[in-house]
Each structure stands twice: as C-alpha cells, then as structure tokens.
Amino acid sequence: MSNYCEDMLKAKSDFAVYERKDIKFREDIKHLISKEKKLQSSIQSEQKKIKEKTVQLAAAEEDISRHAETVEKLNTQLEKEEKLLEDIFAQLKDETADLNVRHRWNWFHII
Q1: DSSP code of 106?
Q2: What is the largest CA-CA distance in the chain?
Q3: CA-CA distance, 62 to 68, in Å (whole number)?
Q4: Could you write out the DSSP letters of every residue in 40-97?
Q5: Backbone phi and psi for residue 92, each to the nearest 5 degrees, phi listed first
Q6: pLDDT, tens digit, for every residue of 44-98?
Q7: How far apart are CA 23 and CA 108, in angstroms?
Q8: What's the DSSP call for residue 101?
C-alpha cells in the first residue's frame, strides 16, 4: 500500500510539473500568435508604404524628364538673350564712347 501511495504522490508531482509546462507553452503560443499578428500588420503597412513610394518615384521621374526639357529650352533661350545683351552692350559702348570723350573735355574746361 505504501508503494501505491508513493506512486500516487510521484504521479501527482509529475502531473503538477506537466501542468506548469503546459500553461507556460500555452502562454508562449498566445504570445507568439499575438507577435505574428503584429508583424503581419507591420508587413502590410510597409508594403502599402512601398507602393505609395513607388508611385511617388514614378511621378518624380516623369517630373524630372519634363523639367529637363524645360531647362534645356530655357538654357537655349538664355544663350540667345545673353548674345542679344552682348550686342546691345557693344552698340552702347560705341555710342557712349563719344559721350565719354565730350564729358572729359568739358571737365577739363571747368578746371
């Protein structure tokens, strides 16, 4: 009979250990399931951001090519305008050269 009682006590002790492990594993499983859901949500959020950034990138690339054409046209126009300005300065230089000589001549007469 004492052997039977010892076996029962040992079985009870072993079962208590088993129950503690079972509870721990169930809690671990719940934690891992919760963590998985959070990670899945995070993945979906990041994938959505990637799609948005891809669309923004495509729009930016289109803007770059469109603006590159505009810059090229404006640079060509700038070159033309600078050439025109140089021509105007050259004309003014010739026309005002005579005025500078007269102005100096008048200045010498005043002194």
Answers
A1: H
A2: 146
A3: 10
A4: HHHHHHHHHHHHHHHHHHHHHHHHHHHHHHHHHHHHHHHHHHHHHHHHHHHHHHHHHH
A5: -65, -35
A6: 999 999 999 999 999 999 999 999 999 999 999 999 999 999 998 888 887 776 6
A7: 112
A8: H
Model pLDDT, residue 93: 82
* Tokens describing residue 69: 């054409």
Work out the angle at residue 22's Cα, subtended by the Cα atoms of residues 19 and 26, and round it to the nearest 5 degrees: 140
In which residue are the tokens 């590159």 written? 68
Residues 97-110 pLDDT 10s? 666 655 555 555 55
Residue 55 CB coordination number (10 Å): 10
